[in-house]
Design the sequence.
DNA sequence: AAGACCCGCGAAACCGCTTTCACGGGCTTA
DNA sequence: TAAGCCCGTGAAAGCGGTTTCGCGGGTCTT
């Protein structure tokens, strides 16, 4: 059981021949300590291999050094590699700043479930939300002054700090690419329209149409839900209703794969007859046949941005939302 | 900044008209308190909406209520959906037991890097290791008495608690299936042979051969590294060296996909000419064309088992390793 | 030269819970 | 009935930092 006995301030103070208060000052970067005394403290710390006890520090200061990463896991969202990757980015940045990541994979639900209680009770210094479906909790926590960062654009425009991919730009680029390749009649299979990301990607798609002076024909806009099956199902409907569709932009790779599988089963050549573009540049995009043209987002950077925004807030700085650029990755499918 | 003022033991004690010591006893399940007094305490707690301050509790008791999940992130391992999924399982079980998950995605490396320091300094009550490449740190921590669980079979047979999938059984089932389907000459593309999982899957493969009375021909055993490219590369070599190969068992889906892509490019029919089986039942297995026959492991269960093992250790129970069964998922590729 | 300030520093209170210790009373034992 | 126990309980001492407060001495006014 023995977490090896570690020196305390008492020992450091004695060794450096100063008071514990001074040790605390030095170790917390209070610059009002005489350099010579500070040096002595640092020496003692070095010599004794001292490491601050976070728990004691937390109790006294009220700062726990813990940041919660909350993943609203109504379905097993976390199995989506996306979130894992974002989290690793967050974690890295936080660790570099001496903070730890507390992971909470849980149906967040109401504004006062278990997770809510935990966050409200001051046991973390801040919280980063993923895949948020309701703003109620966020609003509540924000009122309490808990530093918050949201990954993904929130619905309501509280002035919560958030980070997101440029979904609009991505949707625009995907659609524009299809058109540039010669597609005339481009359909979109959106993601769950309850997510802002799906809406923004759709907006990008619409923008291209707007610029082209046309409007997408009835039925070209299909409301999917990010699932493989949804891609299949909408592709079938599309081909039935619009046999002359020659471009499909799916709001994620998985749906793009679903669509492609249907097209191929029907003997429709991709990209010869219909071009397909996905979104995410996930593993399946790379391994697909034909390899999927898609929109890449820098997921790790997203996490890092979230972490950075959190740090900034903890330092009392004002923060602006961060929108990260996307890249069009051209492969065989379009 | 204001984590709303919460009641303390002092208040509870006053309200219930008992001492703080008694409050502590009641709240920690010490049964030596008179039922009537205990009731009063519970009432007060209820009425005041009291929630224990974990930090203070941790300082006084030495138990932080935090379990570290350490992911050795030499490459961005965490972007593998596998780990995210395991983690969600762990997290769920821990939360149900009032513990929090501290995520550390970091190159673990030596036995005394930052992570090591953190773990050694008693700031967590236990640690769960993922994707472990060296046992040095584990051994060290174990000596210090830190409860440990390893996900995946460790190399050295310290008696550390671990959970793993039945890799041997999975490898066996995959190979056996190929044979049952009529394959005569079955190759294997192993994973990074530095991992025990890869070795065990290989052992399963070998076992089938052993039972069949044959030995795999020279060159049928290819040492891959779990990457798509590695699957491609080995498939090429295989076909060149053994044009009559009619079965390939790849140690993960990604390599299986790589292999399939090469076969298809060469005009070799899958499964007509060569049957292919993967491992993991990841998303790409489902979306592949032909859909990939593979070995499914219950990844969430793996995480839950790890969490459960940790809880057991914290309760001072002796624990045995847990090996979870696999399922053969038959799809189109074999 | 005396009063007003400022600065660096230590003593001590404090954060909120846990745990040891000792006390008083009811019971058993001789 | 006296001595010995056991039990439920509260007082108080931590746990290891942080932070307030005030002191002594040097510097700056007037």
Sequence:
């Amino acid at each position: 059981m023995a977490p090896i006995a570690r020196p305390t301030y008492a020992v450091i103070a004695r060794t450096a021949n100063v008071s514990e208060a001074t040790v605390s000052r030095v170790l917390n970067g209070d610059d009002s300590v005489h350099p010579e005394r500070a040096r002595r403290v640092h020496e003692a710390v070095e010599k004794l291999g001292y490491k601050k006890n976070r728990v004691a520090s937390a109790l006294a200061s009220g700062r726990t050094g813990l940041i919660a990463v909350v993943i609203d896991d109504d379905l097993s969202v976390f199995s989506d590699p996306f979130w894992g990757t974002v989290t690793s980015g967050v974690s890295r940045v936080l660790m570099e700043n001496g903070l730890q990541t507390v992971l909470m994979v849980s149906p967040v639900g109401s504004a006062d479930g278990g997770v809510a209680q935990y966050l409200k009770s001051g046991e973390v210094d801040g919280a980063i939300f993923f895949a948020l479906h309701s703003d109620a909790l966020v609003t509540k926590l924000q009122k309490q002054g808990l530093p918050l960062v949201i990954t993904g654009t929130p619905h309501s425009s509280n002035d919560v700090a958030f980070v997101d991919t440029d979904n609009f730009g991505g949707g625009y680029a995907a659609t524009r690419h299809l058109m540039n390749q010669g597609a005339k009649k481009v359909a979109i299979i959106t993601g769950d329209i309850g997510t802002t990301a799906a809406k923004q990607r759709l907006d990008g798609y619409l923008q291209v149409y707007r610029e082209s002076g046309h409007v997408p024909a009835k039925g070209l806009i299909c409301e999917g839900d990010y699932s493989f099956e949804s891609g299949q199902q909408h592709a079938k409907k599309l081909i039935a209703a619009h046999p002359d569709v020659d471009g499909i932009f799916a709001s994620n790779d998985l749906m793009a794969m679903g669509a492609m599988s249907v097209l191929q089963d029907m003997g429709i050549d991709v990209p010869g007859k219909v071009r397909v573009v996905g979104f995410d540049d996930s593993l399946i995009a790379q391994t697909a046949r034909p390899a999927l043209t898609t929109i890449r987002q820098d997921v790790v950077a997203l996490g890092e941005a979230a972490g950075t925004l959190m740090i900034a807030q903890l330092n009392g700085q004002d923060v602006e939302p961060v929108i990260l650029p996307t890249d069009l990755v051209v492969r065989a499918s379009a």
Q: What stands out?
A: Residues 18-22, 25, 32-34, 37, 56, 58-62 of chain A lie near DNA strand C (CB under 10 Å from a C1').
